[in-house]
Hints:
With 135 residues, the protein is mainly alpha-helical.
Amino acid sequence: xxxxxxxxxxxxxxxxxxxxxxxxxxxxxxxxxxxxxxxxxxxxxxxxxxxxxxxxxxxxxxxxxxxxxxxxxxxxxxxxxxxxxxxxxxxxxxxxxxxxxxxxxxxxxxxxxxxxxxxxxxxxxxxxxxxxxxx
Length: 135
């Protein structure tokens, strides 16, 4: 188990790659023009998608910060929340056929908060994430 943890905390590169991948996926999924009606069966499920997307994004962002020796959770929560807010504002400003929703933003913040809780627990259980031993 210790060897697995040591390998997971050795390099920031895989987490940075995942962060970039999730950033692209979120931007594409929330800002790409949409020219179709969302089926009624999907209504409400988009909040779950927002929660999962922002929880994953915040988790990888937090891991990158931890491994760069910047273990503070408030900035992680703040950046994740601001990212969600920026997405909603851009949906309002850009001609994408999308509309901003307060409940989407609430799902973004909730996902961000859940990731911060997981990061806190991880830092308590895996000291290597707290000390920033990565290169």
